[in-house]
Amino acid sequence: MGNWIYHPDKFVAALTEWLQQILGHPLAVELAKMAIGAAALAGFVSVLAMALIYVERKVAGHMQQRLGPMRVGPHGILQTVADSLKLLAKEEITPADADQFIYNLAPLVCFVASFVSLSFIPFAPRIQAVNFNVGLLFLLGVSAVGVLGVLAAGWSSNNKWSLLGAMRAGAQILSYELSATLALLSVVLFAGSVDFAQIVESQRAGWWIWRAPVVGLVAFVIYTISSTAECNRTPFDIVEGESELTAGFHTEYSAMKFAMFFLSEFVNIFIVCAVSATVFLGGWMPFHVGGFAGLNRCFDLLPPWAWFFGKVSALVFVVMWFRWTFPRLRVDQLMHFEWKYLMPLALTNLAAGAVLVTAGLYLFR
Amino acid sequence: MTQSQPDPAPPAPDYEDYFINMGPQHPSTHGVLRLIVKLAGETVLGITPHLGFVHRGIEKMAEAQTAVQFTHLTDRLDYLSAHINNWAWVMAVEQALGVEVPERAEYIRILMAELTRIASHQLWWGVFGMDMGAFTPFLYGFRDREKINDIFEKTCGARLTMNYMRVGGVVQDVEKDFVSDTRAFVAYFRPILDEYDTLLSGNIIIQERTKGVGILSAAQAKSYGCTGPALRASGVNYDVRKNHPYGLYPRMDFQTAVATEGDSWARYQVRLEEMRQSLRIIEQALDQMPPAGPVRAKVPSVIRIPPGRYLSRAEAARGEIAFFLVGDGKPTPYRVKIRSPGFSNLAAIPEIVKGWRVADMVTVLSTFDVVMPDIDR
After folding, report:
1. Which one, of B325, B328, B370, B376, lies nearest residue B345 by Cα?
2. Cβ burial, residue A193 (10 Å; 0-12/13-18/19+)
3. Whole-prediction pTM
């Protein structure tokens, strides 16, 4: 067991062996593994979203000199469970003039996009639902489908506020996707792979955030900013823009359909932070300092998945911190910021990265 | 980033594609204001305010009530300036009766009015933050307003609708620890104002979103009859407390907060400065206030308003509130006309938001700090 905690890859190997013993046929084993992976991921997503919502409310509470949820369960940990039950029990409302089919489909599109994106994230060695040799590219593509759900929701609700929100979403998410991708690409140059497992493996000597001199740090900052924008989080929450658009694209949604949007929003936060942790901060790789064997052994005491979740939690906290301290940008300022500052910077950074890689100028080679 | 600019070439004004109904149920209309907004994309081509959702006929009600009975209705005009509204009303009646208000009562009134002004601006500051999309200032504003509300609660039992002023003075003397409580609040709140600066004013996003946005020129402000911070931010140095002094304000040493730009940022700065000045006034009033004495002059138990016309004006948190009282010798007024600051201020908004975007409309609305019961009456 202790072996499995520190070496999840051995757990996967043992599981495969066991499945082979009882199922025999390799195809059946593959199918069983897929089913197990999907079930585990589904369970993880629901727990993750609840946990993140709870954490967000606690972070918000403490930043605002209050306690956050305290009533349901000790320190309110069951608050999100209660909220989910409430959302389940609420009435599903479809506006009379809404485009019924698209209206009902939109939340699913959003949710599925986030769910699928999650399957590429390596939580620990070999703990990755889909190990894909172009995982990073595929994740970027799939997560971009989410914006389609937002657009569809805003359009089909037949509500003017929703439409405004959806149009803002289209403009914003597509624009920021560019610099997010460019930022990731500059690290891909260094890592020499778009496979998540190999990107993590390439950081055995050091994390790309500082191993790629300056370029890594700049890319990390750009990715943090633009991924926040992609998640529609403050200061880029103009899509929902509560004080302007009441609730933006999901104004008309209620009950579980609203919960789907809500869920996918929080899963998205996790995904972008997980990508950031994987690409820039070494994923599940423990923090090692060359030449300090004793220190490195201390760091190894934490299992790889703990390193991964630790890094992701830190990043998630930063994103939440943004939300509770920043005001919202205006829609045109948002676009100016992306196209006049962030994008050129990301491009320059990519070019600089290319030069550095060609010259072989990076640390701990 | 570049200086904020209104849309240089909005579509022709006869463009009639997209009308949107902002309010009466909307998070940033602060009550039940309904704005019919004409949009071209995100650009505002024009807005038409629709009023009257909380019209209660307070002016008409005044004609059926005695002066004392009517005081509590003035709480319900601009509910965030209850003490000041009370004061303005009893001042009109005192003028009619020629009552001399005891000195201690005058100081209590000033203290209450300035605390009210601070409380109102605190709430505004928080709500402004929320309109800008920052939720945290809202709770900070409320945290500090709570301290003032506690003082009010100790003094008159109420936290929002005070009904504390009476013709000839105030209902009852303040509690024993009022002075120490208020001093403690002043000591507490001075540094907090700097915290406000670090939390919101220093933020680049706030500055980008308010500087140059929704400029109200001095001429426009005057022609619409704007008062209060909205007028002073446009460079017009007009404050009822200075220009038409009432109560014991002439004894107080304070500056009128004035800015010249007339944009949302100027209105923001003026309000923050007003809080600082109010703290100064409170300190002076606490120093000067006689430690004991009557707080209510002798007035007849049935107040018959002598025939004639009386006008009282006071500087409420949002501008000049004036009560025009016509008496005909009966206990109930013949006519009461209320000049509420919010109404005139709101009137200026449609003109200055043209060409700006939806988000700027919210900014401008927020920096004018409209309170709907004050406008609808």
Report:
1. B370
2. middle
3. 0.85
Instruction: Report phi then psi at A135, rounded to 5.
Output: -50, -45
Chain B CB contacts of A330 below 8 Å: 4, 208-209, 357, 359-360
| Whether the Cβ atoms of residue A183 and residue A222 lie closer than 8 Å to each other | yes
**Cα distance between the two ends of chain B:** 42
Q: Which residue has the tokens 């304070």?
A: B254
- Backbone φ, ψ for residue B238 (5° rounding): -130, 120
DSSP for residue B296? B
Q: In angstroms, rounded to a whole number, what is the distance separating the alpha carbons of residues B298 and B301?
A: 9
Tell me if B134 and A326 make a contact (CB, 8 A cut-off). Answer: yes
Domain positions in chain A are: 87-356
Residue B133 Rama label (left phi>0; alpha psi -120 to 50; beta): left
8 Å CB contact between B353 and B34 = no
Locus of tokens 């209902």 = B171
* Dihedral sign, Cα of residue A149, residue A151, residue A157, residue A161: positive
Q: Write out pLDDT tens, residues B90-136.
A: 999 998 888 888 888 999 999 999 999 999 999 999 889 888 888 88
The total number of residues written for chain A in this structure:
365
Rounded CA gap, A245 and A106, in Å?
A: 19
Distant-in-sequence, close-in-space partners of B166: CB < 8 Å, separation ≥ 6: B68, B71, B90, B296
Q: What tens digit of pLDDT does each residue of A79-129 get? A: 888 888 888 888 888 888 888 888 888 888 988 888 888 888 888 777 777
Q: Give the single-character DSSP code of B37.
A: E
Q: Please check the confidence at residue B2 and state whether its pLDDT lies above 60.
A: no
Q: Which CATH code, of 2.130.10.10, 1.10.645.10, 1.20.1580.10, 1.10.760.10, is assigned to B18-376?
A: 1.10.645.10
User: How far separated are the first and last CA of chain A, in Å rounded?
Assistant: 35
Interchain proximity B132–A325, CB inside 8 Å: no
At B278, give phi and psi (nearest 5°): -65, -40
pLDDT of residue B187: 92
User: Does B205 sit within 8 Å of A235, measured CB to CB?
Assistant: yes
Could you tell me the maximum CA-CA distance found in chain A, to the nearest angstrom?
A: 68
Does B126 lie at the interface with A, CB-CB under 8 angstroms?
A: no
How far apart, in whole angstroms, are the C-alpha atoms of residue B214 and residue B224?
A: 15
Give the chain A residue whose CA is nearest to the CA of B38.
Answer: A160
Which tokens go with B237?
A: 């140095």
Size of interface A-B (CB pairs under 8 A): 90
The H or E element that residue B325 is part of is strand B319-327
Judge contact between B312 and B71, C-beta under 8 A.
no
Q: Which two tokens stand for residue A258?
A: 């609203």
Q: How far apart are CA A327 and CA B28, in angstroms?
A: 15
- Domain spans, chain B: 18-376
Q: Would you state the structure tokens that stand for residue B377, as one six-digit string? A: 């009456």
pLDDT for residue A322 is more than 50: yes
